[in-house]
Amino acid sequence: MDNPLCQETIRLNASAAFQLLVAARSKAVREAAAEALWPREFAEKSQLDCNDVPFESLPYSERVLALIVASVIERNPRQAKRLRVQPLYSFLVPGPAQCSSRVFRVRGYVKDQRVVGPAGNARSWQVSCAFVLPRDAEDTVLQKCNWGVVEAQHYRRTYNWVVGRGGVRLDIHRRVQSRALRAWSAPALLSHTGERLADDGPWVNKLFSQCDISLDSSLILRLCAGGLAGAVISFENSLPIARGRKPRDATLSIEIGPGIESPAVGAYFKGDLSPRYALKGVLPSTHVSVGLVGGQTIKELHAIAQEVGVWHGDRIRGSFLYHPLRKAQPLEVA
Questions:
Q1: CA 207, 317, 253: angle at the middle one, nearest 5?
Q2: What does the CA dihedral 95, 133, 269, 169 come to, rounded to 10 degrees?
Q3: Could you say which of 1, 189, 190, 203 has the lowest number of CB atoms within 10 Å?
């Protein structure tokens, strides 16, 4: 894209860029995500039809989204129901009785008609089907569950740092601490780029063990100096249910601010936040660089992260309030 606002980028998991493509309210951000996920020249060559308008007349971001979804369906045909595949008559005889959303169709195999994939490989479509696109952020994850009033009251949207004689602690409720200590993956501290800060592991565990952290510890010194601005503490807690499945029962993300006086931003989720659309094998890389669009991309990421979480590195991130690339305009905690 030639827009100078998009020259600066943020490196994201492909699933996070896909969430932007689906759920960003800004057209410019959707286009930046589309540009990052699939180069422009490949989007025109898809063998897709649209039920209400010519496919080529659709906005660039919608065409790219349709092509990516079609590619995921072709790669995972057994997951058709999860991927919102429709009966073909929904495409052939569109109407409110069949489907209220725009319907796309993969034409199937036609001799000498091939699609060029993102890695440059040419292939023919093997699947003929109709489908609709994901409509919002919640459609991009497997399952988001509602919280009960009693269950959610122990979780907060902000967490303050408390300084005492023995050191510093985070005012986390005992119920949250209990869940963290029983989590299948221990709480981890990740930088704003999504990289795990392994050297701080013992100090992070102390935060969930009702222990104060010494004022002269490396974690507190970096916190006070602003070196952890935009970093997140994240964990997933799973409980077994029928047939041995272990859905993520509780996911908590706490984003650290630029100093000890700044409250940490919390986000809590229930359900399985794994990406509904598996992009591995569809895109040439598991990570992409998305244009910042003058800071709008971070604002959109923050809104999505607060709603369903964003996979950033190998953990869920629930806030981009303090991310260093946020630019000047302030964001508000949802």
A1: 30
A2: -150
A3: 1
pLDDT tens digits, residue range 86-98? 888 778 765 554 5
On the CB side of 303, CA atoms within 13 Å amount to 14
Q: What is the pLDDT of residues 6-40, one digit of tens each?
A: 469 999 999 999 999 999 999 999 999 999 998 87
Please name the amino acid found at residue 160.
Answer: N
Q: What is the widest separation between alpha-carbon atoms in the chain?
A: 76
pLDDT tens track for 100-136: 678 998 876 655 566 676 667 776 666 678 899 999 9
Phi, psi (5° rounding) for residue 29? -70, -40
Among 253, 231, 247, 239, residue whose Cα is nearest residue 316? 253
User: What is the amino acid identity at position 211?
Assistant: C
Provide the b/e sequence for 120-132 (b: ≥16 CB within 10 Å): eeeeebebebbbb
Q: Is 236 helix (H, G, I), strand (E, B) or coil?
A: strand
- Sequence-separated (6 or more) residues with CB below 8 Å from residue 134: 22, 65, 69, 84, 140, 276, 277
Residue type, 85: V
The closest of 307, 308, 300 to 331, measured between CA atoms, is: 300
Give one DSSP letter per residue of 18-67, joined into a string.
Answer: HHHHHH-S-HHHHHHHHHHHS-HHHHTT--EEESSS-GGGS-HHHHHHHH
Is 0.85 topped by the overall pTM? yes
What phi, psi does 193 have (nearest 5°)? -90, -5
Q: Write out pLDDT tens, residues 69-84.
A: 988 988 888 888 889 8
SS3 content of the chain, % helix, strand, coil (to 5): 35, 25, 45
Other CB atoms within 10 Å distance of the CB of residue 163:
14
Cα(first)–Cα(last) distance of the chain, in Å?
Answer: 31
